[in-house]
Design a protein that fits this description.
alpha/beta; about 350 residues; six-stranded mixed sheet; Nucleotidyltransferase, domain 5; disordered N terminus; binds zinc ion
């Protein structure tokens, strides 16, 4: 018999990456417990192997729940130890995800995947977990039946995490940008993630900021990602150094060390003029993209996260705000620009929200 409570207090969030699967029990307050990190093992098999790894991560989270003695069941089912308790799982996955049907249409992290019904695959694997074997417990313990209730693009999941438990709390319309290897985006309109007509909305990283600019991974020219993605920031400073510009990083490159945005940020903090300029330009490009976004959507707030955002207020956020103030009309220009609050946890928290949303 299945027990369904009227108010979900916990669900399991899974953040699927090309390298790792991160999972955890998430409370409706947005706290993460019983974390698990497993290698994705994408090389050893196809989508069904990855689905089995996701199920294994969920199993391990539930084992940890048992070990930690956390009672995730409702008060109502507390006295019914022998019954099976259904717990919702949500999944954030990289690529073009068809959220309604639970299908991975395409994913740069999983070459060869095309229209994979990942939610069905994962649920088939979760169904194989006999509830009594979840934690090796005795019959007197709770038995959990995990069910994958929702999947979305990983950046949409992060956006949802920030909306409910991060920098977006209290806002109804917002955009999120994640500055990492690529530049991801998410759009929230009236409190809901906006997917567009065919699930491709929110590709804010492919906003054009230079008509004949740098080549982007998507094949277009001059996308924001071609300027603000990690590799692109490094290439831009290397180009300027090759053109003869002076920088404290010249010696680092001569030593054969590969530059990272973090090294550039550290050089900037130490006063390196070229490194400061690179971040100012990066902020300018982000500000140009956000000006278009503000004019189209008029969001209350833009949340910026990912490793590059760690460059912080002075190096990055001030140039972004300056550009928006310079270019946007007065009302859209009032969009707040803030750093994401949840960091790497946004993926797990947001994925768990997908399961809670599906329930409520
Ligand atoms: Zn692009």
């Amino acid at each position: 018999m299945t027990h369904r409570t009227t108010q979900t207090t916990y669900s399991i969030g899974v953040d699927l990456g090309g390298t790792d699967i991160k999972a955890g029990l998430v409370s409706s307050a947005g706290d993460i417990f019983c974390r698990v990190v497993l290698p994705t093992d994408v090389e050893t098999g196809g989508p069904k192997v990855v689905a089995a790894r996701i199920a294994e991560a969920v199993r391990q989270v539930l084992v940890n729940v048992e070990t930690a003695g956390i009672n995730i069941t409702s008060e109502q089912s507390e006295s019914t130890d022998a019954e099976v308790y259904e717990i919702g799982v949500g999944l954030g996955a990289p690529g073009l995800i068809i959220a309604e049907t639970g299908v991975v249409h395409f994913s740069p992290n999983f070459p060869g995947w095309s229209d994979i019904p990942l939610v069905d695959y994962v649920n088939a694997e979760l169904a194989k977990l006999q509830p009594t074997k979840l934690a090796g417990q005795t019959d007197t313990h709770k038995k959990y039946k995990p069910i994958l209730r929702g999947m979305d693009n990983d950046v949409n999941a992060m956006t949802l995490g920030e909306l409910h438990h991060g920098a977006g709390v209290g806002y109804k319309s917002l955009v999120a940008l994640t500055l990492g290897t690529g530049v991801g985006g998410g759009v929230v309109i009236d409190g809901k993630v906006y997917h567009g007509s065919r699930n491709t909305a929110g590709e804010l990283g492919h906003t054009i900021v230079e008509p004949n600019g740098r080549v982007c991974g998507c094949g277009n020219l001059g996308c924001l990602e071609a300027y603000a993605g990690a590799k692109n920031i490094v290439e831009r400073i290397e180009q300027k150094i090759a053109d003869g510009r002076r920088s404290s990083l010249v010696d680092v490159i001569k030593d054969g060390v590969e530059l990272t945005p973090r090294m550039i940020a550290e050089a900037a903090e130490a006063g390196d003029a070229l490194a400061i300029e690179i971040f100012a330009e990066t902020g300018q490009y982000i500000g140009i993209a956000l000006t278009s976004i503000a004019h189209i959507l008029n969001p209350q707030i833009a949340i910026i996260g990912g490793g590059i955002a760690e460059a912080g207020e002075q190096l990055l956020f001030q140039p972004i705000r300056k550009e928006l103030a310079k270019r946007a009309m007065d009302i859209p220009a009032q969009m707040k620009i803030v750093k994401a609050h949840l960091g790497n946890d946004a993926g797990i928290v947001g994925a768990a929200m997908l399961a809670m949303d599906a329930v409520t």
